[in-house]
Amino acid sequence: MTKKKILQGNALYTVIAIVFGFLAGAVVLTVAGISPIATYKKLTDSIFGQPKYMIWSVVYGIPLIFTGLSVAFSFRTGVFNIGAEGQFVVGSLAATVIGITVDLPPILHVPLCLLAAAAAGAIWSAFVGLLKVKRGINEVLSFIMMNWIAFYLSNYVVNLKGIKAEGKEATVDILESAEILLPLSVRQMTGCKSVNYGIILAIIAAIVIWYIINKTTLGYELRSVGFNRHAASYGGINADRAIMKAMAISGAMAGLGGACHIMGNASRIAQFAGQEGYGFQGITVALIAGSNPIGCIFSGIFYGAMKYGGLKLSTIGAPKEVLDIIMGTIVIFIAVSHIFRHLLNRKLKNREE
Amino acid sequence: MDELIKILGLLINATLVATPPLLYAALGSCISERSGVVNIGIEGMMTVGAFVGATLGYFTENPWLSFLCGGLAGAVVALIHAIVCVSYNADQTISGTAINFLAPGLALFVSRILFDGSTDTEPISDAGRLPRMFEGVFPAGSFWNNVLCTHVACYLCFACVLVVWFLFYKTKFGLRLRAVGEHPKACDTLGINVTKTRYICVVLSGFFAGLGGAYVTLATINQFRPIVIVGQGFMAISAVIFGKFTPHGSMMACLLFALCSGVKVLASSYNLVSPNLISMIPYIVTILALVFFVGKARVPAANGKPYIKSK
Predict the structure, then answer these.
(1) Does the ipTM surpass 0.85?
(2) Which residues in chain A (25-84) have CB-CB distances under 8 A to chain B?
(3) Per the domain annotation, does A115 fall within a domain?
(4) Closest approach of chain B CAs to the CA of A280, in angstroms?
(5) Distance, in angstroms, between A152 CA and closest chain B CA?
(6) Do A145 and B284 touch (CB under 8 A)?
(7) Is residue B295 domain-resident?
(8) Domain ranges, residue A291
(9) 3-class SS at A171?
(10) Residue B111 near residue A321, CB atoms below 8 Å
(11) Between A and B, how many CB-CB pairs are < 8 A?
């Protein structure tokens, strides 16, 4: 009976996918003549070797928890937020601009930046919702367009006078009052210069999203629209309005992620040469978490740790791109996890008979 | 007047430089979307094509072979997409997203192995670059030289539009391809092999995307860098939407988008408008097109939906 329960849950298949991901990475490394064991050992050491490495891993994970939540929330409500990338960018842009141009005491400045970022992300996403609801336009297409508009908008703003740092391809740093860093003494003690309150915000956000989905009328409406839009409409739910709300909340999460990234770690936006990928990585985070908001905390930190640990792989001559290969493979195997489910269930059934 | 003609020549030239990668990829995207498989992995397939083209161009100095292999590399990546989406009915957008991680990751990984830890490949020698048409026929810097002396592969991409158009509307396979994207069940009932048709289309789309990528590194620039593709795959997808999912429409959209980047090149050399604002135009135009002209009806009906026989 318990065996059956495990086979019906999502966790087993996620673990299978992760194993396959690392196997694929090992195969590629072996073909390239690099020892996968040494590489994975280096990766583990770079994440768990020292307490400050683990703290860095969490810091790297914070924005990914937010984009993961954004995508997970959209999955639960039946839309596919592939636009978290753009919402993240406009969120970080809003936080940066307010962080530079407005001078307030921290107690007001921080909430203002966060609010502006959440609003920017929400508007960016709700616009796509509007197109979907009013004109029936597939959200995947318009999200992709909005991602690139955000990309160039950010590059445009970065180059504006008063925002751009002299002689650099980046903005000036945000004011100290807009930062969410822990006190200097704590930072020096941990040996990580970017320890910040973002993780607390991320955990609160995850709980709020979990609460909205599972415990509120709104969440019930959103889930029913996600299951079957027409049935929900028939049942008296305003499906259009529910979709708009869902997309706004989803966008706000991604926007907050951008804000936390700037206010807790980056302090500035550099001119983009290519998409940074926080939004797309959020898709992976949400998939690994099985769209569970609480799970996103862990899968976000997992991805963050991989990104942080990966930075040091070059010291042993292993390309850090092996992580993209691992992560891409994980996503593919989660996408086809229903096959494993089918195979394992059939095996179990055969044995019972 | 002379100055004006010269600027016009430069603008056409810049447009023709930007067109082929977009157009090759757009043809690929068009084939895949019409057969009912959403392919947002075009970007990743282009990156692989660009890398393989540049690498082979450097080692073999045979541009046409490298160009072809760039296409084939894209096709191999597309095969993964086909297996995952057509055979195993996975969510096509998720699979495409995964490919956009996987394919560029693999390209950069191999680059670091082959080129001493660098993500930039070594520059291709002149012999390894794609040849130009009418080289040396017109005086350098003249209007006709700017307009006509482009790469042979640029002429070729317009020929490909014709070929794909013919394939779509004048052949049995084209009819099947379009039907499979609209109503796979009806096709299946009539004995058309939905799986096989979609496999061919997805692999073809990867082939064209790979050619587009290889064009960038073998003709426009002479090496691969991680940022050579940035967004061109997505812009190609926009062009297909804007072009109402037809090969000729996609071509017009590609020319328009390429004109935007031509204007960008000229405007930034004269310091007129921020190039970043001009870069947004294709995407804004596509959203407007979706709102006003394209609408729901023009998107292939079965686009993005896996075909599961037993249902």
Answers:
(1) yes
(2) 28, 32-33, 80, 82
(3) yes
(4) 7
(5) 5
(6) yes
(7) no
(8) 57-313
(9) strand
(10) no
(11) 143
